[in-house]
Amino acid sequence: MKKRIVVQKYGGSSVKDADRIKAVAERICSYKNKNTDVAVVVSAMADTTDDLIELAAKIAKNPTDREMDLLLASGEQISSSLLAMAVREKGVESVALTGFQAGFRTDKVHGKARVHDIDGSRIKKAFKEGKVVIVAGFQGMTDEGDITTLGRGGSDLSAVALAKAINADVCEIYTDVTGIYTTDPRVVAEARKLREITFDEMLEMASLGAQVMQARSIEVAKRFNIPLHVRSSYAKEEGTMIVKNKKKIEEIAVTGITCNKNEAKVTICDVPDKPGISAMLFNAVARAGVNVDVIVQNVSHTKKTDISFTVPKTDVVRALKITREVSAKIGGGEVLEDRNVARVSIVGSGMRSHHGIAASMFEALAKASINIGMIATSEISISCIIDLDKVNDAVKVLHKAFGLEKVK
Ligand code: ADP
Ligand code: ASP
Ligand code: MG
Fold first, then answer.
1. Which ligand 1 atom sits nearest the alpha carbon of residue 11?
2. Domains and CATH numbers, the chain
3. Residues in a beta bridge with 140
4. 262-288, pLDDT tens digit by residue?
5. Cα–ligand 1 centroid distance for 255 (angstroms)
6. CA 153, 156, 157, 162: dihedral to nearest 10 degrees?
7. How far apart (Å, rounded) are the C-alpha atoms in residues 313 and 40?
8. What is the pLDDT of residues 360-380, one digit of tens each?
9. Which of 329, 317, 252 is nearest to 288 (CA)?
């Protein structure tokens, strides 16, 4: 009989101290039996990654990407070794593996490396020996033998990629909330847990700021159709299934609300309104490795126009420098920055077949006296750039306007 293979991922909030590590070990052992193999991916304990980044900043202005990855990967090596010890204490054989030892091969892009392939042979050998395998998440290794990390929240990706590589029957993501909610339950008390959500919706929500899952992990889950079960490591109850298609025949228009407080707006004023300017600007920004988000260019009546765009706050200094250089080259005007902005978004596959959703969104924001600075749409989302200090109110207002407190 083929054994069941379960992949479980425990986030940093689930292994924040010794007691939590023991509790997680208990749960892992309850899954392991002679018919089930368990591979666990674990994040660094609590805020370890943030703390390490802060520590490095105190020591070096521009640390090398290679050493940063080596440093950050250590967080997951601590939690994985401790968790393996805790599992063994419960009488179940276990082995902790770094990303490299678990066979994760990546490209060389430090800080956001892509997984090329996973050689699962060492994990399979450990399964044969009856061991639970505990893999340090968020990391891999280049062909040259350098340690890389997979971007913030990257242990989600480690888990999904591992589930694909070892052909797991189940991939469970354990966190500190009981599933995916209509919006962040820590911001809106009325948020409701969703029984299921599609890959497309989760990808959109994650890309638009819902930190609960890393967007890249959902891309991989979608590509290989790996259903994910997001649930709490603190409770027994069933969580949310992230799946290709929902069971419900007809969809409601809006499934969730997200916000992103990590955006900043750059405006380049008085740009000559002629072909090639946007191409030149955004090529230069892209070459600097900055991801541009919402772009707005006004129609000009004077042969000059303003172009505004948003970038992650962490990239704004770089974006400003490049934009000022481009402005000087093309005879443009001043370049302005605004860090007091945030994005609020509504997401739902049902938007494809419902009308008037944008109007309802704008009306709800208007009623709450929230001014809309920029608007962006995709097939299944509408986003507004608004003032940062209004964003939590905006999420609450929209959650109510679309009746999400009743959604399951
Ligand atoms: P982990 O440590 O398990 O990786 P994260 O902190 O990365 O956990 O993600 C879990 C957090 O995501 C929750 O505590 C919650 O505040 C936040 N979150 C944001 N949006 C949502 C949502 N729509 N549903 C559930 N949680 C959300
Ligand atoms: N520890 C890493 C981070 O904080 C990876 C993860 O937790 O998924 O981003
Ligand atoms: Mg996370």
1. 3
2. 4-176 (3.40.1160.10), 256-406 (3.30.2130.10)
3. 148
4. 999 999 999 988 888 899 999 999 998
5. 16
6. 150
7. 33
8. 999 999 999 999 999 999 999
9. 317
- Find the mean pLDDT for residues 339-366: 95
Q: Which ligand is nearest to the CA of 46?
A: 1
Strand locations in 74-179, DSSP E?
Answer: 94-97, 104-106, 115-118, 132-136, 139-141, 147-149, 170-175
Q: With pLDDT > 90 as the criterion, what percentage of the chain qualifies?
A: 89
pLDDT surpassing 80 at residue 300: no
Length of the chain: 408
Token pair listed for 5: 């293979």
Going by C-alpha positions, the residue among 313, 296, 282 that lies closest to residue 375 is 296
Rg (CA), the chain: 23
For ligand 1, atom 25, the nearest C-alpha belongs to 180
Phi and psi angles of residue 69, each rounded to the nearest 5 degrees, phi first: -65, -40
Helix (H) / strand (E) containing 399: helix 391-401
Q: How far is the CA of 383 from the centre of ligand 1 (A)?
A: 20
* Closest ligand, as measured to the CA of 174: 1
Q: Is the CB of 43 under 6 A from ligand 2?
A: yes
- Pocket around ligand 1: residues whose beta carbon is below 6 Å from it? 11-14, 43, 153, 175-177, 180-181, 183-186, 210-212, 256
* 154 close to ligand 2 (CB < 6 Angstrom): yes
Q: In whole angstroms, what is the distance from residue 22 CA to residue 90 CA?
A: 9
Q: Which residues surround ligand 3, an ion (CB under 5 A)?
A: 11, 153
Q: How far apart are CA 287 and CA 81, in angstroms?
A: 40
| Residue spans of alpha helices (H) in 8-118 | 18-31, 48-59, 65-89
For ligand 2, atom 6, name the residue with the nearest CA.
Answer: 153
Residue to mutate (ligand 2; options 9, 13, 72, 152; most atoms within 8 A of CB): 152
CA torsion through residues 53, 59, 62, 67, sign: negative
Q: Which of 19, 21, 29 is nearest to 6 (CA)?
A: 29
CA–centroid distance, residue 354 to ligand 2 (Å):
37
Average pLDDT over residues 354-358: 92
Can you tell me which atom of ligand 1 is nearest the CA of 10? 3
Ligand 2 pocket mutation, candidates 8, 74, 155, criterion most atoms within 8 A of CB: 155
Three-state DSSP at 295 gives strand
Segment 39-46 shows an average pLDDT of: 98
